[in-house]
Write a structure and sequence with these properties.
Shape: globular
Strand order of the largest sheet: 3-2-1-7-8-10-9
Number of strands: 10
Order of helices and strands: HHEHEHEEEHEHEHEHEE
CATH superfamily: Vaccinia Virus protein VP39
Number of helices: 8
Helix content: 25-40%
Oligomer: single chain
Strand content: 25-35%
CATH topology: Rossmann fold
Distance between the termini: 40 Å
CATH architecture: 3-Layer(aba) Sandwich
Number of domains: 1
Length: 240
């Protein structure tokens, strides 16, 4: 072990080359560059942390972020107010257009169309539902057709972080799949909401439509170290 690694270990850290891609933070820029992504759809944007991460990693092309909750959307607008290539939309995404009540939790990170289950509420105090709001729902297909020019020539990265609703978002992008080159989806190995699809069902559905996993990155764990949630990066093998 060299001196740098010894010092890092002393302070509770581990030094790893980014080229080994041990984390989502190092894998993401590799994916964006390798697949020449020129359009990112940020579904479940919250206050814009993912968009900021993209910019910090050097991505300078177009971003469209979607956040349906009024208070959170106002914060999202402030995050990207000086970025002309980053557009925001007060809209949720699903499998069909409409309006629906969304559960706004104590921490906005856990806001979902689904109800927290017993495990979720025991695991996360932030999952308590503080209020509800009726929000607009659109689809990826309709949005791209109405708002993005030359979609047939775009290389799209679809990021989904919708607290149990990612599969619905994916279903609303069926016509657009030939242009979605890469995808990031949050999967729950242990459900924290009622009515969530099993993560293996979700993965199989993605794989059945030509997507293959390039990385799985733990997001949260139980106290026994078993994984609750992961970020899953996928590429569309049918269009590469």
């Amino acid at each position: 072990m060299n001196v740098s690694n010894k010092i890092a270990k002393l302070f509770g850290y581990e030094l790893v080359r980014r080229t080994r891609q041990p984390s989502l933070d190092s894998h993401l820029p590799q994916i964006l560059s390798h697949y020449n992504i020129d359009l990112v759809l940020d579904v479940g944007a919250n206050i814009g942390r993912f968009g900021e991460k993209l910019r910090n990693e050097g991505y300078r092309s177009e971003i469209h972020s979607f956040e349906p909750v009024s208070k959170t959307f106002e914060m999202l607008k402030k995050t990207c107010r000086n970025d002309d290539s980053w557009s925001v939309h007060k809209l949720a995404m699903g499998d069909a257009p409409g309006r629906q009540s969304i559960n706004i939790t104590a921490s906005a990170d856990f806001t979902s169309f689904l109800e927290p289950n017993t495990f979720g509420k025991a695991q996360y105090k932030e999952l308590d539902v503080a209020q509800t709001e009726t929000v607009e729902i659109g689809t990826i297909d309709d949005f791209l057709e109405a708002n993005v020019e030359n979609t047939a020539d775009r290389r799209i990265f679809l990021k989904m972080d919708t607290q149990g609703y990612d599969l619905k978002v994916f279903e609303g992008a069926r016509r657009s799949l030939p242009r979605i080159v890469c995808m990031l989806s949050e999967l729950s190995l242990v459900p924290i909401y009622s009515g969530m699809p099993h993560y293996l069902e979700v993965l199989k559905h993605y794989e059945d439509h030509g997507f293959a996993v390039t990385g799985i990155f733990p997001v949260s764990r139980k106290t026994d170290m078993t994984i609750i949630e992961v970020d899953c990066m996928l590429i569309n093998t049918s269009v590469l």
